[in-house]
Amino acid sequence: MSDLTDLTDLPAVSCTVDVDTDPHSAFVAFTDEMDNWWMRSPISYYDSARAIARRCEQGVGGRLLEVYDDDTGDALEIGRITIWEPGARLQWKSSVDDVEVDVRFVAQGDGTNVQVHARVLPGGNPDVTGSFSFVRMVPDWFVKWCGRRDTASREIRDLSRLNLVLYYRKPVTSARWLAKAFGFDPPSLPEEGEDASWIEFHVGNGALIVLKAEDDMGRAPLSHMPFVFVDDLDAHFARAEAAGATIVEPIHQHGYRAYVVDDLEGHRWTFAQARPTMVS
Questions:
Q1: CATH of 2-148 given 3.30.530.20, 3.40.980.10, 3.30.470.20, 3.20.20.140
Q2: C-beta neighbour count of 280 within 10 angstroms
Q3: Model pTM greater than 0.90?
Q4: CATH level 3 topology of 162-273
């Protein structure tokens, strides 16, 4: 069970979820196994093109890391742990924004009630809240991992190279319908009326991304768009441009690093830089 609450009048968000495991195991799953439950979505990293892992070091002073290279130690420090009480409580101060995240593990029957609260600290910038993503991810990603961790392989599964974007005029309504009608395994879907800029389903190791359809002067509205990961984005961009592709958006960074083009008959494509962990 999950209950995601946005405190729209305050710079804070919270969620509460129930998992069928004891508090100590839930704490271990959240911290030691973060790289297992943190899905490798195109937008789930600060630098999706380079990230190879998401890790949590143990103890007060430990770091939450987005790892880029194990050999050199290259990593982005996402947060620094301020409270470490195994089986009970975890808290960290974000190193990338002014957010503090507090996670509590409360015994509930044979399971655990996990409470995640993220807030902008006094005097902080309320417009930069990337750390709120933990509240968004836990109800779906962490709960699912707790449900299968006893039998699941610890091998990290990355996305496939080819994924699909679908455009709808009413993306929230359509995404909720897709989940109900076709059984797609959804993230925590936004409620009707919420502004959702990115909704992502996972089908096996493929992503089905739902975006809002916008009117485009001079052409029919987009309906579908392939989303392809490539090894060398700069070389790929140069090749596409030389072949006459129409550049819609040059190479840009938004978590993932990508560019957007139209082919000779006006079909739109997004090409993104593959992570080092992606299978060729």
A1: 3.30.530.20
A2: 5
A3: no
A4: 3.30.720
